[in-house]
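hiii so um. not sure if this is the right channel but i have a protein structure encoded as tokens and i wanna go backwards to a sequence. like what aa goes where. can anyone help
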């Protein structure tokens, strides 16, 4: 393994090693980076006899949990989680995030909101000073299907630079979320006030959930190109080895 994949693996392993302890209920995020974290968690269960339960944030996360023979649970049985570990598309200096590149931000935000701690693992490409600087595809916004046209118009009126209905890759038509909704990607350029923008977007009728995660993450692990892992916390907004 080399390059970006190695960086993802290192970051995810570091997050799992530092934050998952015996007896914990763990929220499992979605995407290619957390997949390495699930493999590491399964290793620790085998090697250390760790007892954990895992709550997924998507169909993909559920598959990861079951394929790695980890105990699967849900928010009905575990409405309070000790930690949620997830990936991100972009992370700013204050640990605000853009998520939803994989279209799972709604369940990811619900699970994160039920966890005492949200920890993010990402490769070096996700590190950014301000949201919207590196991730140019736009903020993923899950919407109720009947509302997608008026919501797109409202986003344009809010001065979004690009507004796109996300289309499926191997099927004609739109990408349909795990919740049966659609996704609009809206790029607002560099975002100066993520909390304000999130509140504005949440105020549009038909918006289910945005990919802006403001003030939720407590620590981010970045896998670097040179094989090191750096971290960022809200208290030390700079990077430390
Ligand atoms: O938010 C997500 C899915 O909705 C993912 O966590 C995010 O897209 C990062 O994915 P990857 O680890 O594959 O880069």
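sure thing!! here u go:
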């Amino acid at each position: 393994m080399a390059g970006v994949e190695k960086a993802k693996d290192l970051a995810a392993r570091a997050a799992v090693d530092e934050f998952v302890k015996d007896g914990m209920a763990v929220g499992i995020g979605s995407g290619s980076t957390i997949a390495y974290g699930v493999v590491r968690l399964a290793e620790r269960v085998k090697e250390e006899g760790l007892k954990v339960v895992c709550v997924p944030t998507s169909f993909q996360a559920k598959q990861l949990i079951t394929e790695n023979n980890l105990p699967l649970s849900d928010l009905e049985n575990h409405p309070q989680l000790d930690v949620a570990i997830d990936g991100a598309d972009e992370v700013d200096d204050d640990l605000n995030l853009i998520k939803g590149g994989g279209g799972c931000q709604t369940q990811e935000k619900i699970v994160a909101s039920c966890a005492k701690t949200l920890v993010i693992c990402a490769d070096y490409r996700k590190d950014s000073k301000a949201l919207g600087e590196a991730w140019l595809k736009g903020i993923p916004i899950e919407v109720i299907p009947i509302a997608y046209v008026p919501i797109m118009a409202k986003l344009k009126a809010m001065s979004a630079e690009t507004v796109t209905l996300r289309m499926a890759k191997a099927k004609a038509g739109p990408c349909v979320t795990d919740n049966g909704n659609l996704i609009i990607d809206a790029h607002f350029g560099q975002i100066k006030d993520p909390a304000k923008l999130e509140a504005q977007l949440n105020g549009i009728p038909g918006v289910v959930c945005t990919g802006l995660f403001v003030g939720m993450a407590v620590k981010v692990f970045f896998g670097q190109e040179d094989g090191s892992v750096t971290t960022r916390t809200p208290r030390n907004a700079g990077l430390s080895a």
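oh and Residues 3-19 form the longest helix (17 residues).
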